[in-house]
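Private note to self, pasted from the team thread so I don't lose it. Backbone tokens:
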């Protein structure tokens, strides 16, 4: 899997992402991409979803930027991609075989997404508004979305419902991604990661920086999968950044919508993209350490010990740490910070805040003096007013029970009063949003 340059001097992993820009999405008798428009055969997609006998019905809707549409409750958002050259396939260990990905060529339907909806746990899915104030808080309002409305068979258990919906999203995303296999991309972006030894030789004068990516793994339906394995079953480890771009990490959790890392977030992790952009200029991007978020203290100690050990082993000068979720994971965040700082390695944390509706409460459930460089994704408790929409895709009645909502959130005219928690991606802790704090 290691690609070798012609002069045989530098070993590196190289991934080319070919972007096919999607400016519109429409239903059609034939699924295809033509002149920037994604045409989708609705019946073919429904048939693909209904291959899973856990669903008694399925429907497909379109949601475009500027439409007076509200999607709720949202489970996941997935970007269509296809591996056109190189080992493995998108979502290895989930849909495709367990092969190491992250090299070769992958085409992307940039500007399109598959959105899955369903009342799984009721209070930990989210809202995407395609216009109005709510649209300003979510990046997914800017995408041409194919929305799956999948109703489970009676008495299907919640974790089985989650799994069925998760795989429905993957299958449809790969179905759409396949449409780009033979297309010439509008733009190609190249990402290269040298081996550790070659990286040291390349930029000896620049600070070595790694990224510690914390994955939600706090119990049933609080899962993130790495090559098909639930992250809670794994120890802290290292991964090539480009593996993540090929779908090695996917979302399987039902947590508060505002800071959930959807599969789309993982595929387009902005921390990784920004570190690549600065590689060789202001820093030497070494790679990614992935670690889980645990429930029990012993597991938290074990995972954070390994994060610090690997950062030290890599010989880095600094790390960026991002978390997923809030409350209990704040302890994992601060443990990672303290232990890595104790190795003489500088840390920068990315989190969001639950500082109360007036912003005066303690922002995090845990804190330490060593956490002196923190980037905020905004206050999830801020109350907003979402205007009524002409069309609802999904189930609007969950507005009163969704995390961030309350009894009386949903008004008779269809408007919603709620905290930012309800909006998918509003305070994302990878920084994939517009909010911060002052």
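Design output:
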């Amino acid at each position: 899997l290691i690609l070798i340059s012609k002069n045989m001097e530098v070993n590196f992993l190289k991934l080319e992402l070919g972007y096919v820009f999607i400016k519109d999405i429409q239903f059609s008798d034939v699924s295809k991409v033509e002149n920037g428009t994604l045409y989708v055969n609705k019946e073919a997609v429904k048939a693909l979803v209904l291959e899973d006998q856990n669903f008694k019905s399925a429907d497909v809707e379109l949601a475009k930027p500027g439409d007076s549409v509200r999607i709720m409750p949202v489970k996941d958002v997935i970007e269509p991609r296809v591996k056109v050259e190189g080992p493995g396939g998108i979502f290895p260990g989930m849909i495709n075989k367990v092969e190491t990905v992250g090299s070769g060529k992958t085409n992307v339907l940039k500007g399109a997404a598959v959105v899955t909806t369903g009342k799984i746990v009721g209070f930990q899915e989210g809202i995407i508004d395609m216009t109005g104030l709510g649209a300003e808080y979510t990046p997914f309002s800017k995408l041409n979305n194919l929305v799956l409305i999948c109703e489970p068979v009676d008495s299907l258990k919640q974790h089985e419902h989650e799994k069925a919906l998760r795989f429905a999203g993957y299958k449809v995303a790969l179905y759409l991604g396949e449409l780009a296999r033979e297309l010439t991309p509008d733009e190609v972006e190249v990402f290269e990661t040298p081996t550790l030894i070659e990286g040291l030789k390349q930029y000896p004068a620049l600070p070595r920086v790694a990224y510690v990516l914390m994955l939600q793994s706090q119990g049933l339906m609080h899962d993130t999968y790495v090559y098909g394995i639930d992250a809670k079953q794994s120890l802290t480890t290292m991964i090539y950044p480009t593996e993540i771009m090929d779908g090695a990490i996917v979302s399987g959790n039902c947590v508060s919508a505002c800071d959930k890392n959807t599969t789309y977030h993982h595929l387009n992790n902005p921390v990784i993209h920004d570190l690549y952009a600065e590689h060789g200029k202001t820093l030497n991007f070494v790679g990614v350490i992935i670690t889980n978020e645990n429930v029990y203290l012993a597991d938290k100690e074990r995972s954070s010990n390994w994060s610090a050990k690997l950062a030290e082993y890599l010989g880095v000068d600094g790390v960026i740490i991002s978390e997923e979720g809030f409350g209990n994971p704040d302890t994992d965040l601060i443990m990672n910070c303290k232990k890595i700082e104790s190795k003489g390695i500088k840390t920068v944390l990315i989190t969001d805040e639950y500082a109360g509706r007036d912003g005066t409460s303690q922002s995090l459930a845990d804190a330490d003096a060593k956490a002196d460089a923190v980037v905020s994704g905004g206050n999830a408790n801020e109350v907003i007013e979402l205007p009524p929409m002409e069309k609802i895709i999904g189930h609007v009645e969950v507005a009163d029970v969704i995390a961030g909502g309350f009894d009386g959130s949903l008004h008779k005219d269809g408007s919603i009063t709620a905290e930012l928690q309800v909006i998918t991606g509003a305070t994302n802790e990878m920084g994939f949003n517009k909010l911060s704090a002052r």
